[in-house]
Every structure is written in C-alpha cells, then in structure tokens.
Amino acid sequence: MSFDCCIKNAKIYLKSKIIEGGIVVDHGKIVKITKDTSLIQADHKINAKKHLALPGCIDVHAHLRDFKLSYKEDFYTGTCSAAKGGITTVLDMPNSQPPTININILKERKRVAKRKIVVNVGFYAAIPSSIDEIYLLVREGVFGFKLYLHHPITEIDVENDEELTKYFSEIAKWNTIVAVHPDDKTTIEKNLSLLKNENLSSLDMFLKTYTPEGEKIAVERCLKIIGKTGTRLHVCHVSTSDALRAIQNAKERNLNVTCEVTPHHLFLKTSDFERWGSYAKTLPPLRTQQDIEILWEGLRNGIVDIIATDHAPHSAEE
User: Fold this and answer.
1) Cβ partners under 8 Å of residue 229, min gap 6
2) Is 157 a residue of the active site?
3) What digits encode the pLDDT tens for the residues 258-301?
4) The domain that contains 37 carries what CATH number?
5) Which pTM value belongs to this model?
6) Pick from 314, 304, 309: which is nearest to 281 by CA?
7) Is residue 281 part of a domain?
8) Do residues 260 and 125 both lie within one domain?
C-alpha cells in the first residue's frame, strides 16, 4: 500500500515522550506513527534529519485584521505567520473593522477568509446588541462570544450585571463560551478623571489607567455571574497575580472557567518600557516581576490552561 507522504528520521513528541521514527500521512491526515519506515511506500518522502516533530499548535486568541484593517494584515499574511510559527489553527477575535457583531458580517468574514487562509481558522463574535442574534450566530458556526468589558463594541450595557446575566444565560443555553477581556470600564473612567490634570507622559497615563485593580474587578464580576448561570467562561490574557488567584479560587469551587496567558506577559515586565517604548504597549499592560512569577507558577500547576498569543498587528506609525 502506498501513502501520500512519509516523514522519516524524526524525533516525535508523542504522549509526553520523545520517540524516534516516522510519520505517515495520507489524504491530509496522519495515519501511522512508526519506528521503522524502511518498508513504507510513499509518493513523497521527507528526511527530518533528527529534527523535533510537534503537533500543530492552536492559538485561541488572535486578531487577523483584514477588511478595512488590511493595511495592518489580512487573512493570508496572518495565517502565513501562524503557519511559520507551527500554528495550524487560529481563533479570530471580533474587533475587526467592521466588527463581527452580527450574522451578516460573520458570513462575509468567513467568505473572505476562505479564499485566503493557509491554516484552519475559527471565529468569535462580539456579544450582540440583540439577544436573539445569539442563536443565529451559533447556528452559523461561531466558536464563542467575546465580551469587552472595558470598551464594548455593541450596545450591551457592560456595567449592568443584570443585563450581563441575561446574556450569559442565553449563551449557556447553546453550550458555547464567553471569552472576556478582563478590565473594568468604571475603574478606567475613574482613573482617567483623577489623572487628567496631572502632567504625565502618555505612557505613564496608560499604565495608571489600566490597573491591576480593574482586571481583578472584571474577573470577579464574571465569576459571580457564571456562578448563577453556569456559563462557560474563558478569561483572556490574564496579567496579574490577583486575577489569577481569583480564577484559582473559582476552579476550586468547580466553576466552569478557563484562562490564558500571553508570551509577552510571561517574559516582559513594566521596566521593559524603558527599552522598547511604545512598541511594548499592550492591553493589558506589562506588569511586575512578581506578577510574572505568579503566572509561571499558574502555568506549571495547571491553573493557567493555555498560552495564547493575542496576535494583534499594527503599523509602525501607530
């Protein structure tokens, strides 16, 4: 029997071990992993030369731009970058331009992406203004719903817990997920009001506006709501020790919550602004060395479920 492709002389990561052998592929799928490839007949053979072969990674948090933001990136360049980094599935967040807030925009985003992507792509939608739109988006295949507590992109009142509870309950009905950007709109507005007359650089103003307190408040609000609704909650780009401890406590109470951290929050800290300036400006901001150590500890002990890139390109001028 002949197969499409055989990758031989590879070091294969399999079931938490490294084994030496080959990978046999047919019709786009791995059909066999074997230590001895000498008898394998294949149309195409690749000698891995003892290099490490890993499963394709999944990035659950990326902003692939395109549409009116194609000057930053489009589906083709974004997914090429993913493939180059060993990522074979990407989940696209909804704050494109126009944003993915209804079924028509979701359909158009899928149509455009289908012509350009080189890896698998799934789509989030923002929690829509109309609760009736949730089912339509689920039926169209949306992966989940993104909630921007700091800067809503639909007409949902993010400061009203009763309204959030109503939307969370509807999303739970369809067994899908809410991914939250954890920051608190009220805290941000209060900080801006207090700081407006201070003579601060734009960078200092940014750091004192998007504080660890806001992240903790947002996480605790959402955890309280899912305690009532049972909604699946995913907390995006956790950056502070207090927020991670709140998530740990929720997991110990068996709440249905997962979370992610980003590479930049694992490796960079506030003092790196001195070297990189605005190139190191992310949202949430880089935090302290103590926060970094707690995030690493959470990754090692399983409180952090996944590393996600939060890939979000901008032009150099921006």
Assistant:
1) 165, 168, 169, 172
2) no
3) 999 999 999 999 999 989 888 899 999 999 999 999 999 999 99
4) 2.30.40.10
5) 0.92
6) 314
7) yes
8) yes
